[in-house]
Amino acid sequence: MLQRIEISAATTNPRDVYYYFNDIKVGDNSNNGTSESDYAGAIATRPTVGGTGAFRYGATTGTAYAGFDQNYQAIQRPQHQRDV
């Protein structure tokens, strides 16, 4: 488990917790919105929203988020010659 807590003068601050099993990320939860954002998308959104809060994009309050299905991969039945 990796935990990230920001500290500021705000009453409530961003907190992110990342869960790993065998060096593979299995999930995360946060009060700072989703972590499922790519670099280009984050940069593109940054100048369009403004604020002075401690949370993502300057928000003054947090947004609850939990994600534990990032690494889900369905198991497919192998195709055999006789199935085709």
Query: What topology, given as strand order, has the largest sheet?
Result: 1-2-3-4
Fraction of residues in H or I helices: under 10%
Number of domains: 1
Describe the sheet with the most strands.
Answer: 4 strands, antiparallel
Secondary-structure-derived class: mainly beta
Instruction: Determine Rg (CA atoms, Å).
Output: 18 Å
Describe the structure.
The model has no long low-confidence stretch (mean pLDDT 79). A four-stranded antiparallel β-sheet has the order 1-2-3-4, with no helix packed on it. It starts with a strand and ends in a 17-residue tail after the last strand. The longest helix is centred in the middle third of the chain and has 7 residues, at 39-45. By secondary structure, the chain is mainly beta. It contains one helix and four strands, in the order E-E-E-H-E. The protein has one domain (2-73).
